[in-house]
Design brief:
mainly alpha
Length: 160
């Protein structure tokens, strides 16, 4: 088992500090650069995007904060998680990187997906592009991960 994977599995060492630091820094950047954030002017909210009520607004803010945090964690996983995936899923050569990228995409995609909805507004062509670009790729990622589990189960002598 690679040293970094051992440290991550034990929850010790500099590995967790790197993961937490990258997660928090990128989460803060993502939150601040969201369409409604103070630095999000490069993709402003659409004028025809519905505005939340005062009662709904805190829930949307919390959702955005959670998405930003998961985005940051996904980026940390993208930066540091490949050795862990190699250790956990020693699948065929092409499948390990595919599973790794699938896991990363499942974490990273939420923040830009919702942000693009806010920027797009009610433009149906834009909505179709967003939905296909994100939903279909999440479906493909799920299929890759299930296939990876099936291959790993077969490798361990289990048939499903």
């Amino acid at each position: 088992m690679p040293t970094e994977s051992k440290a991550l599995a034990k929850g010790t060492g500099q590995t967790w500090i790197k993961w937490i630091a990258v997660t928090l820094v990128l989460a803060i950047i993502a939150f601040l650069t969201s369409p409604n954030g103070p630095l999000g002017a490069f993709w402003p909210p659409s004028h025809d995007f519905p505005q939340p009520t005062e009662a709904q607004l805190p829930f949307f803010i919390v959702l955005n904060a959670v998405e930003a945090l998961v985005f940051g964690f996904g980026m940390a996983f993208l930066m540091f998680g490949y050795p862990l995936v190699q250790t956990m899923w020693p699948a065929p050569k092409w499948l390990t990187p595919a599973a790794y990228l699938s896991l990363a995409w499942l974490l990273i995609s939420w923040w830009p997906h919702d942000s693009l909805h806010i920027t797009n507004g009610t433009n149906m062509s834009g909505l179709l592009a967003i939905e296909y670009g994100f939903h279909v790729t999440v479906m493909v990622a799920g299929v890759i991960l299930v296939y990876t589990l099936l291959i790993e189960g077969r490798r361990r002598g289990r048939e499903f």
